[in-house]
Batch of 3 targets.
Target 1
Amino acid sequence: MQNILPTLTRWLAAFVGILWCYIEPTLPFIAICAFAVLIDCLTAWRLNRRIRKAYSKEVADGKLKSSHMSKMISDLAIVFLCIILAANVDEILLPHWGGIHLANYVAAIFCLTQIVSILENESSCNGATWAVYAQKILADKTSRHLDIDIDAFEELKRQKQEKDGN
């Protein structure tokens, strides 16, 4: 057993080194995507707080939820793997194309979808002028955060307007 431990340690170190060399070129893209998801989570939390303030404490608790965070982590894992795959396809399979930077495109597309989600979060349940205009082209995430269908949300919204009007 004493003789096998140094050999096993060397094999493990070699494996970690190879893995690091394989992943290291994609770390800047992964960091940018993780930052975009962090901002999306922050704006979703802010939306949840606005909904709680606008409707009631019973329909929105204004808290972060682990189920939403586990989805975020699984989405990030998929994006990270896609970025690593794109970088290696670009470097290993298509070097004759002169480097088309596929990992850049994958990360940029993901970040664009996160930016749209951030704008949806910030414009939903927001009475600011810019938000009203943004809602004409962006989805309103309020009903999703209330966990009700859109018809029930419209009824809730109508009741709130009647209450505020009286």
Note: The chain is about 75% helix and 0% strand.
Target 2
Amino acid sequence: MAGPILSNIEAAMKTLIDGMTVAGGYNKTWGDSNEDDLAKKDAYPNAEIRLIDEENQDEIDGGFSSAYANRATFEVTVHDKLTSVYDNPEYQINVELNKCLDDLKKLFGINYHVSDTVNMIYYRGMVRDEPEKAGDIVVPRKMVTTWMVTYSQGREDPTSNAN
């Protein structure tokens, strides 16, 4: 994969998420990621992947001088909605979001190198939005999950992994 290493990581995350299906052992079959226009989303659940920050972890007197040791934080925002009418959709959608969270944990638990783009991916946490009539069959609800990735990056060729 040529190009910026952070873009490669994001693309690999997208490919993995878009590949989740019930037939593949997940709770849900996921729609295409990184479409932030709700009207254009093809299926639910789906995700938006965003890089939040990145920092270098090199020690001042570290011994590995041919690569940077980096840590980046990504947010994966999940949108899901109900497919049936419920008396209490604001709570029923939580069950569906929990299934989505389990899917992501399984996905990155199995693919902890994110298609060989990172050294390791770590689950950091989750926050749900406030349910203002969200989560019924018309209005999706969102959940933001946070993931930390560690990776090594070549000093002479920053587009390369230096694992």
Note: The CA atoms of residues 38 and 53 lie 25 Å apart.
Target 3
Amino acid sequence: MVKLLRPLPYPVAGIGVLVLGIMWSLGSGLANWDQLQAAELPMVTTLLLVTVGGTLTVAGVWFGVSAVGWAMGRLLGGKARFVKVLFAISTAAPPLWLAAPAVPLTLAAGASTPAHLLLILMGGAGVLGFMVLLVAELRELEGFSRLQAWGWAALTIVFCASFLSLQNASL
């Protein structure tokens, strides 16, 4: 049986987050193209700054989500080291490569158009694919049951979402 979704091999797992950062930067750059053109910098410099900033942001989120995930795994009886959780999340990243540019473009689109709906579907499909791969990686890493692995994912999402909601409420 051929699997449609496959995680990255562990030796190249770090590439998952690097490509994710570049794809996020691509979507952000396209969504804000007018501001990039209006910048008083050469376009190559502007694009380099957007790419470096987006990639560093994604790397920071990767470390933060991995730390929360590691803690939630420990809560459920997991014994994996933090680095293993960090790499498990990165190996599951390829579906997010599709979702990453779609999110800023969706936020910038505003009105409901067919393109807007397509972007939402792309983002949702990427996130769903990521979750399926991540749960499979966690089952293998921790020896979790399917229920424990999905519980891990749910706890991690709820914690991160509550943190983001508190962060946004303070703005």
Note: Residues 43-75 form the longest helix (33 residues).
